[in-house]
Amino acid sequence: MDSQQVFDLGQRGLMMLLMISAPVLLTVLVVGLVVSVFQAATQINEATLSFVPKVVAAVAALAIAGPWMLTMLVDYIRQTLQAIPTVVG
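Request: output the structure for the sequence above.
Response:
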């Protein structure tokens, strides 16, 4: 296994990480921004007001994008495991 293969494997892993985490992170980011604007407009400073909607949005994003995320992870793991003989040999 040479250094180019290690870098390619690492790059594929990081890209997979970004693709899998993006739906949840972007959803929580948008909800946090909306809640922050609402808090600034109404001058309500309640910690649970910013926490609860983010948790609900994260659960909803996982429920919606979960099957796609699982499929992507299974495909990546399958490709990685099938590449072991060519990398080692």
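Residues 9 and 80 are 8 Å apart (CA to CA).
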